[in-house]
Amino acid sequence: MKNKFIITFLLSSILFTACKNDKLAPVAPNAVKPTVVTEALPHDTDDPSIWIHPTDPSKSIVVGTDKDTDGALYAFDLKGKIIKKSEVLKRPNNVDIAYGLIIDGKKVDVAVTTERESNKIRIFSLPDLKAIDNGGIPVFEGEALRDPMGIALYTRPSDKKIFAIVGRKSGPSGSYLWQYELTGNGKFATAKVVRKFGAYSGKKEIEAIAVDNELGTVLYCDEQFGIRKYQADPALNDNKELALFGKTGFKADNEGIAIYKKTDSTGYILVSNQQANTFMVYPREGANGNPNNYPLLAEIPTSTIECDGADVTNVNLGGNFKNGLFVAMSNGMTFHYYAWDLMQKRIDDVKK
């Protein structure tokens, strides 16, 4: 009787799980398999960013968010092992990394995350994940709609100033995104708003944001509508939309954005087709001489499930990642690492 009860309980659990996840698309049989799957986090992975070690790329790390009231930033090595954890954060959502923020006269690499339940951005030094923001920096002050979600960091090539472009759960079209200049104030980092911009369809939300430092542009996903492109430099005083693409082909949400750089001006834009478990690939440089024309080059099935966020680098990290690393969040509280060669092969196969 005891064994019968155990079997019945297990079958019930399996059926419950299947019913709970019946809306999730299955991983395709021909999906790219991850090179590494990280250790699982306690709550809910959402967004990763890659930090490149200055002298030994094989010691580079991936910083990812654990999105919960009792969450944190976690650092993983290239084998997927957790090696650092930040202080506890109130629902950290997205994260991005920049190099050489001047703090107390010294250059400090930083990871900046949105902390949704406190309406702040939080700034941490790298690679030690120590808070350097004196408790956090409020964003969208004076607004009824705050709840910061997406973030991308822009380093202006001319003077190396660093700016954070921050999105939120909802907001008005035309000023959905706020841009902050990051600076040092003694031993702490601080920020001031320098720009408000960004069209919004009103369909869902704007979370995934990516900046192309070399091309000076910012891309963001207006979920269930398309991918929008703007100038990144606030000094240009140009809030005109440059391009709108990716309006078709997505099952539901267009989500995490990553930019793979083959040269200073060429490469790929990868966007998560979240509910299809694929990534849509567009030309970074545009097409037919038009830098704002983005035809779909390929759709790559991956093993990530319901991917919210992704990042990529072309740097030789050694080992399996000699031509770079693509990292994407997956359900199951993990991040998946893919050797870039695996992604490039799929793109090349479509071109044949």
Instruction: Decide which structural class fits the backbone.
Output: mainly beta
| CATH architectural group | 6 Propeller
Gyration radius over CA? 20 Å
Total E-strand runs: 25
How far apart the termini lie comes to 60 Å
Strand content: 35-45%
The ordered H/E elements are HEEEEEEEEEEEEEEEEEEEEEEEEEH
Low-confidence stretches: 1-21
Domain BPP: 17-347
Signal peptide: 1-20
Pfam family, one: Phytase
GO molecular function, one term: inositol hexakisphosphate 3-phosphatase activity
Overview of the structural elements:
With 352 residues, this protein is mainly beta. It has one domain (31-351): TolB, C-terminal domain (Neuraminidase, 6 Propeller), CATH 2.120.10.30. The chain contains 2 helices and 25 strands. The protein has helices at residues 2-20, 340-351; strands at 36-37, 45-51, 61-66, 72-76, 82-85, 92-103, 106-115, 120-125, 130-131, 137-138, 148-155, 162-168, 177-185, 188-197, 206-212, 217-222, 226-231, 243-245, 254-261, 267-273, 278-283, 298-301, 310-313, 325-330, 334-339. Strands 6, 7, 8, 9 and 10 form a 5-stranded antiparallel beta sheet that branches. It is globular. The termini are far apart. The model is unreliable at 1-21 (pLDDT under 50).
